[in-house]
Design goal:
heterotrimer; A mainly alpha (about 375); B mainly alpha (about 70); C alpha+beta (about 500); B: about 70 residues; mainly alpha; elongated; C: about 500 residues; alpha+beta; 3 domains; five-stranded antiparallel β-sheet; 12 strands; about 10% strand; disordered N terminus
Chain lengths: ~375, ~70, ~500
């Protein structure tokens, strides 16, 4: 197996684009309405310990590939079960994200093109990227992050003229419940989807650097960035429009109109969405094939990529023929499963791993040659 | 349409298998199984069978809801 | 003595037939009838030394040698000297090399093969009656092009020297830029028939040893008949041979080569071509010009940015135009959209056909202009610009905006001349993807190219490495060029061990 390693900043770019990539155009924390910035703060506070747990799990792997580290931490058969769960989760997430982008493109830009064509285009690219591996994805994202930030921050700056800060008042008129609801929604999608990086932790960890150094900055940057965009969208569109629109950030950039020429910037924002989604699908499928390979007991994952990637084409259609259906199936599946995969399982894994590691350390300390 | 999809999968699978440097039978078996699963999946959706969206833990939730009431 | 030992060491390997005979006549006969049979350019100059007289012969290839040198420093000293009678065989030859022949390069040989090798490469070979050894004296001399400004890389400001076709001259041009014993030049012969001389240059202590070894190994592995240009070697040793992006750089300018090897790269100079190779070659290098380093850093940074924009324009304009016109007319500002629609009203072809046809015509004109003699080439560009452009619009075969698109594409392509040929292929790819899926197809194309670039490596170094570092020190010489006193470190990937190029004292002085 190749020794994969991603430089720190490229890793941060990867995590950043993974979280921001496909989520910023959606109305995040819609239930919280004008208080969504509060939801974001709550979500960040709630998510941080979990991200630390992911990071810790990553560090416990000591840069070993998933297939070697996990059995060491959890035992042979539990590790395979965990791997299978994550594989299913990653594949499901990949399908969802593909569904997101195909629906988005059909809704705003190419109404006559069948979604399958879009999904097929993505599948080919993702197939290629996943076969190239995590290092290539990291390099890709570190170039693309510049493009994405440049476009989005320019759009934000231009949209500042439309901002109306009055939209945020009054604060917490409806009480704390909607804020919390919003927070949970953001936690589930997209913040805690970072859990997938446990599967790639071997590339993010080196001898000198633990996985925190990549996960935490990437996560915080992305979370604050999302908060900025969602808040700006509320301030531009107003609470009402934000809550009812499918793609509020997209709509708010559509309001930009400078000297009648700099119009239609939303197309450019759509471009960044497409880039982010591509990256996210690739990461999902990379994790899905790596974990599935481990479940089946192979050390090489590349031969599993093609069937998995091809199956996201029908998969995305299965979950979401339209945006409305999408939300339905999202609520159907997501809820409980995600709590298990994003919160419960990592916690259990972490505790088991810590216990086993401390035992192992004790055993080693008993021997004179122990480190 | 169905024939086209199956044909596509066969072509992809064939070309990929040809490109492999070595073909241990375990890998080939897993690969073919997964590929045929993907193909079946595509065909099912193409002929518009409404597959129910899976609800993992859905039964658990229903049960919990009943217990709650 | 050293020469003698070496010649002796090789003796057991060669067959008896290959070894020189003691009889001069036998040797000459063998040469005339076998090795140099049917070769009329070989000159056999017979002469005799003073008392005690000995028969000598000087063999050389006409026009490959300096004739005055041969007569003044080999023939004349031998003619006027009297070789001691008691000397024979190897001691005689040793006496001649040490005391008679006035030349800085002389090798003793004992086989016909060595003799032939020397003579065809421009040496003069001396055979003496009664000796089964010979002396090969370096006397290379042939017509060389003088050092002129290279046509492909002309500068407004900067040195006007360019490489010539002669390897020796080229090596000396680089050497004169770096007067340090750390500069190493190692020679190799490549090509079974051509035996082309190849020089590998690097600065010891800056270029990583693994890189130098890797270059050596890759060149050694080449097994081919002929190396006629450095492009042959490039294709044999490059990474990602199936990708049109260059992974080995080439230049005609000694100052560029010096700059590259001072950053920790390895240069390969090939005899017979003015184009030197530098490796590893990174994506950013395609956008660097040596003039960037001679101008003010802000001006240089502006030019760099301009090149990146040009590259985007030359690859993307037709694709974007096609995507916008056919799939997303609502994205074009209203007034522009109307004028494009008005221009396209009478055009019978779909935009796709228009784009491909005009792109093709442009490439044909360019190719025609390059290959033809200069005066005719100009005529072609006039025909292209006026006749085809004007007339095609007048006849409503293509729309006027399309001409602008092709024009922008073409002109922008010349700005990034190193990637011009690659840009053509990318352009075609993007036109097709845009035609299928509009803006998103265009984006698919771009992302595919990015994945390809991200996956590429050049001699173990990621192709995009400077662009992906996301640090100030890492990106100091990419899209922008920081002033020299800010570029304290050499690029991290190229010279990982010896990174400091500005010493601390000079750094504090400049502040």
């Amino acid at each position: 197996m190749m020794n994969e390693s991603v430089p720190e900043r490229q890793g941060i770019a990867l995590v950043f684009l993974f979280i921001v990539g496909d989520s910023f155009v959606f109305g995040l924390a819609r239930w919280a309405g004008r208080d969504l910035w509060l939801s974001f703060l709550v979500a960040i506070v709630l998510a941080s310990p979990l991200i630390l747990v992911y990071g810790r799990l990553g560090s416990l792997m000591h840069g070993q590939p998933f297939s070697e580290a996990l059995p060491r931490l959890l035992g042979k058969w539990p590790s395979r079960l965990v791997a299978l769960t994550y594989s299913a989760y990653a594949w499901r997430l990949g399908c969802f994200v593909t569904g997101d982008i195909t629906n988005f493109v059909q809704a705003v830009s190419l109404p006559d093109t069948p979604q399958v064509v879009m999904a097929f285009g993505y599948a080919i690219l993702v197939l290629w990227a996943v076969k190239e591996g995590i290092e290539v994805l990291a390099r890709f994202s570190s170039v693309m992050i510049i493009v994405v930030l440049l476009i989005l921050l320019t759009a934000l700056g231009l949209a500042m003229t439309e901002v109306n800060l009055q939209e945020f008042l009054p604060i917490m008129y409806d009480g704390f419940w909607p804020v919390l609801q919003g927070a949970f929604q953001i936690l589930d999608f997209p913040l805690l989807e970072t859990v997938l990086f446990i599967g790639l932790a071997n590339a993010l960890t080196t001898k000198k650097r633990s996985a925190y150094k990549v996960l935490i900055p990437g996560f915080l940057l992305a979370a604050f960035f999302l908060m900025l965009f969602a808040s700006a969208s509320v301030a531009i569109l107003g609470e009402e429009a934000y809550m009812t629109s499918y793609f509020p950030v997209f709509m708010s950039t559509a309001r930009i109109d400078i000297a009648l020429f700099l119009t239609r910037l939303e197309a450019v924002v759509g471009v960044t969405f497409a880039i982010g989604t591509f990256l996210k699908i690739s990461v999902c499928l990379l994790v899905a094939s790596k974990t599935l390979a481990h479940t089946l007991g192979f050390s090489d994952y590349r031969f599993l990529v093609t069937p998995l990637v091809l199956s996201i084409i029908p998969g995305s259609q299965w979950f979401a023929k339209s945006i409305m259906e999408m939300e339905q199936s999202a609520t159907k599946i997501v809820g409980f499963t995600d709590v298990v995969v994003q919160v419960a399982l990592p916690l259990v894994m972490w505790i088991v791993a810590e216990i086993r590691m401390s035992k192992e350390r004790k055993n080693k300390a008993g021997k004179p040659s122990g480190i | 349409m169905v024939i086209l999809i199956i044909f596509g999968y066969v072509v992809v699978g064939g070309v990929e298998l040809l490109l492999w440097k070595e073909r241990p039978w375990q890998k080939v078996l897993v690969y073919l199984l997964l590929l045929s699963a993907a193909a079946t999946f595509s065909v099912l959706l193409a002929i518009d069978v409404r597959l129910p969206v899976p609800e993992p833990l859905g039964t658990l939730r229903n049960w919990l809801q009943k217990l709650w009431q | 003595m050293f020469f003698w030992k070496r010649a002796k060491g090789e003796q057991p390997k060669t067959r008896d037939l290959d070894r020189l005979s003691t009889s001069l006549e036998t040797n000459l006969k063998w040469l005339r009838s076998n090795l140099f049979a049917d070769d009329d350019t070989i000159v056999y100059r017979r002469f005799k030394t003073k008392e005690p007289t000995r028969q000598c012969v000087l063999i050389h290839a006409n026009n490959m040698t300096k004739h005055e040198f041969l007569s003044d420093y080999i023939v004349r000293p031998l003619m006027i000297s009297s070789l001691p009678r008691e000397l024979h065989g190897q001691r005689l030859i040793q006496h001649i090399t040490e005391q008679v022949i006035q030349s800085d390069g002389a090798t003793v040989f004992s086989s016909y093969e060595k003799l032939a090798e020397g003579v065809v490469a421009g040496a003069g070979a001396v055979l003496v009656e009664g000796c089964n050894l010979g002396i090969s004296v370096d006397a290379q001399g042939w017509e060389k092009r003088s050092v002129t400004e290279p046509q492909t890389e002309s500068v407004v400001r900067g040195p006007r020297q360019g490489f010539t076709e002669d390897l020796g001259v080229n090596v000396s041009l680089v050497r004169r830029k770096i007067l340090s014993p750390e500069l190493k030049v190692r020679m190799m012969d490549v090509g079974l028939q051509t035996r082309t001389k190849v020089a590998i240059m690097y600065v010891e202590g800056i270029a990583p040893k693994e890189l130098v070894d890797e270059v050596f190994q890759r060149i050694e592995r080449i097994e081919t008949d002929a190396i006629l240009e450095s492009g042959y070697i490039e294709e044999f040793i490059r990474d990602s041979p199936n990708c049109p992006f260059p992974t080995i750089g080439h230049t005609e300018r000694p100052d560029r080569v010096a700059g590259k090897i001072l950053e920790g790269r390895v240069a390969v100079l090939v005899d017979g071509t003015p184009f030197a190779l530098t490796m590893p070659f990174l994506f950013v290098e395609a956008f660097q010009a040596n003039e960037d380093y001679f101008h003010h850093w802000m001006v240089a940074s502006f030019h760099r940015t301009l090149r990146y924009i040009s590259f985007f324009l030359t690859t993307s304009t037709p694709g974007l135009y096609l995507a916008l016109v056919t799939h997303h007319p609502q994205l074009i500002p209203m007034s522009l959209s109307i004028s494009i629609a008005a221009a396209r009203k009478n055009v019978p072809f779909p935009a796709m056909v228009e784009v491909i046809a005009m792109g093709l015509v442009f490439e044909i004109l360019r190719e025609g202009g390059v290959r033809l003699p200069k005066p005719v080439g100009q005529a072609i560009s006039i025909v292209g610009a006026i006749v085809l452009g004007e007339a095609a619009v007048g006849a409503s075969l293509v729309s006027a905006p399309m001409i602008i698109v092709v024009g922008v594409t073409g002109v922008a392509g010349f700005v990034v001349s190193k990637l011009n040929d690659t840009a053509v292929l990318i352009r075609i790819l993007l036109v097709f993807t845009s035609a299928v899926l509009g803006l998103y197809g265009f984006l698919f194309g771009i992302m595919g190219i990015m994945v390809q670039l991200a996956s590429m490596e050049s001699f173990g170094i990621p192709y995009l490495s400077s662009l992906t570092s996301l640090t100030i020190q890492g990106s100091k010489d990419t899209v922008i060029r920081l002033p020299w006193w800010r570029m304290v470190l050499r690029p991290r990937h190229l010279a990982p061990k010896n990174r400091e190029r500005l010493h601390r004292q000079s750094r504090s002085k400049t502040k």
